[in-house]
Design the sequence.
């Protein structure tokens, strides 16, 4: 714990502790942009590009094993028939996406590439009155990704995501008291 009045630490659980060290941490500048094409309640497709200047990163003046990174992501979703009165699966939102690029970590002279894809769906819970835009959805997705190089270090991951979109009558302000 740091005591501001005495400018000292009361507990130390590190291997090396130096009192009074000062320095700056410089984080990278990032830039990104994307475009999306959609038709309301039917489909959406998009592409996104991000880049970060990790070669400028400094930790108390020290250079780390980082490099400039970039990532191109793309994906889309569609609903077979959102106005259908029958057939639950016609109202489900189906999603598919992916990405690839160069990771900010650099080990030796090897670039660490990143690659992945995801598949998911949005399951509507109920829709009592469509004119009032009431909808609640359960969103589920599965992602597989990897980064790194087989020769040096490779990380492969699997991610399962579950989310809820709550938009129902209790979020509307009463018009009459």
Sequence:
């Amino acid at each position: 714990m740091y005591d501001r009045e005495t400018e000292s630490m009361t507990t130390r659980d590190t291997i090396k502790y130096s009192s009074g060290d000062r320095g700056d941490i410089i984080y990278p500048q990032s830039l990104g942009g994307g475009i999306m094409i959609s038709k309301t309640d039917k489909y959406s497709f998009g592409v996104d590009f991000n880049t970060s200047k990790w070669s400028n990163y400094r930790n108390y003046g020290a250079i780390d094993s980082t490099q400039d990174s970039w990532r191109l992501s793309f994906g889309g979703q569609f609903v077979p028939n959102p106005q259908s009165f029958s057939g639950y699966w016609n109202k489900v939102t189906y999603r598919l996406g992916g990405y690839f690029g160069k990771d900010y970590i650099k080990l030796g002279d090897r670039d660490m590439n990143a690659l992945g894809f995801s598949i998911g769906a949005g399951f509507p819970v109920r829709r009592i009155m469509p004119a009032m835009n009431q909808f609640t959805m359960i969103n589920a997705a599965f992602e597989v990704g990897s980064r790194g190089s087989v020769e040096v270090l490779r990380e492969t991951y699997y991610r399962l995501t579950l989310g809820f979109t709550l938009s129902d009558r209790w979020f509307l302000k009463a018009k009459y008291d």
User: Anything to note?
Assistant: The chain has a mean pLDDT of 84. The radius of gyration is 24 Å. The chain is about 0% helix and 60% strand.
